[in-house]
Amino acid sequence: MTQQKKALITGLTGQDGSYLAELLLHKGYEVHGLIRRASTFNTSRIDHIYVDPHNPNAQMYLHYGDLADSEQINNIIYNVAPDEVYHLGAQSHVRVSFDIPEYTGNVTGLGTTRILEAIRRSRKDIRFYQASSSEMFGGATPPQDEETQFVPRSPYACAKVYSYWMAKNYREGYNMFASNGILFNHESPRRGETFVTRKITRGIASILAGKEKYLYLGNLEAKRDWGFSPEYVEAMWMILQADKPDDFVIGTGETHSINDFLDEAFSYVGLNIEDHVRIDQKYFRPTEVDALMANPDKSEKVLGWKAKVTFEDLVKIMMDSDMRAAGLEVPGEGDEIISKKFGEKWWKKD
Ligand code: NDP
Ligand code: GDR
């Protein structure tokens, strides 16, 4: 019998952390997660998979800590002794990183070094996944791949570039299995409410429910390569199962503007954009990333990973979910896409 694998996830309570935990539990892993103490509950994305540790069936364990606290990180990595560490924890909001650049550098940048150091000091054979980002490409001309130069355009992106290089440095300097997944934007019904896709689908649901009249947004011209989070956490797992540590771009290979997203979402529910969308300067960024589009050829060739959910599918999946949450009747095309493309899906609640 093969031994049960143990994984530690930072950022367990976030969009990706919650799907990844579900995927790893489904694969039979024992899952450990770093969570922050908050004065209100911050576990809504993982409540449905949480089992009280007194229960003999419990396979997921939570550990209080913070990426700014190296002592606790050292303790957790030493005591848990995981086989794999998925480092997803970060101050992940690009616009917010302009307001709190130092904090973002500490958590999104130095947080990675704290984990890498803890691994190096405890057991160097632990496999490490770094949540790198297409934001690192910033001002580089699309399409972007593993060879594209980084041109970071925000404190967040600068912190991620630092983390990317630290992962590579520990791979080369200490022979550690440290890999970067350079993931392009990926969304889902669990996406944080202030990222643009979720803000739009949730905003439209509120308008339909008669709670709001307008949706206030910033730059509608920017283009992104948007995919579906559950598929992207599968890529993270595949990256750590590869024969050797390496860096991989993960994306769909398509790009669309915020305007395209609005068109698709408003037409899905039969509303008029002009009647409901207003521009507010406060959502613009001091420096913008104009266009991102992945060239994901390497991940398809080496990992066998390819996105199934298209841009149009994604909008429908997110609209159905937010309309359901608002107590509205749902068009249902998003639900159909999920069952057609995934059959028996491994994630439960959305
Ligand atoms: P989220 O913002 O949804 O989740 C971030 C997670 O990090 C949360 O669990 C949050 O905890 C945790 N966190 C934040 N600050 C700290 C801290 N100081 N100490 C410990 N934990 C902390 O991000 P996503 O799930 O969308 O993304 C996961 C990772 O992938 C992030 O690193 C992100 O930067 C990166 N990424 C994301 C992409 C995307 O399109 N989603 C694309 C490329 C990279 P809490 O719940 O308490 O706030
Ligand atoms: P991004 O995602 O910055 O790409 O980072 P976000 O959804 O915040 O912005 C995408 C684009 O939409 C424009 N935009 C707005 N954005 C927000 N949040 N709110 C608005 O009202 C609004 N109006 C227009 C932005 O200017 C931008 O061009 C996400 C995060 O998940 C990162 O952690 C991750 O690394 C990258 O994706 C890949």
Automatic annotation (TrEMBL):
Alphabetic keyword roster: Lyase, NADP
UniProt cofactor(s): NADP(+)
Catalytic reaction equation(s): GDP-alpha-D-mannose = GDP-4-dehydro-alpha-D-rhamnose + H2O
Domain NAD(P)-binding: 8-318
Annotated function: Catalyzes the conversion of GDP-D-mannose to GDP-4-dehydro-6-deoxy-D-mannose.
Protein family membership: Belongs to the NAD(P)-dependent epimerase/dehydratase family. GDP-mannose 4,6-dehydratase subfamily.
Name the UniProt record assigns to this protein: GDP-mannose 4,6-dehydratase
Organism the protein comes from: Methanomicrobium antiquum
